[in-house]
Amino acid sequence: MRWLHGSWRESPVPDPFASTRAAPAASAPPTTPTEKMIAEVWTRLLQVPQVSTTDAFFELGGHSLLAMRAASEISSRVGRPIDPRLLFFRTLGQLAEVCDRAAARGE
Known about the structure:
Elements: E1 2-4, E2 7-9, H1 33-46, H2 64-78, H3 86-89, H4 92-105
Helix pairs in contact: 1-2, 1-4
């Protein structure tokens, strides 16, 4: 409510973040071998029925201790260390890309 023309009236309040909000990402099933491997780890650790490449670990209910376990298991499966902090800021698809790029570079 705000003061308009001598009385309090309802007025729509503009949402200052409306133009900066991203539309929800469409669900996409894992397709690459790396995506499928990470999805299997996440579904087991997070006890969720399925995950998509647009899902984020913490949005699915993960926490820091599970992130450590997930990173450890993914590291052992891909044969190279995975920084657990990657799970804080990346979706499943993005994490799979990081793993695949590291493998291609021989890291």
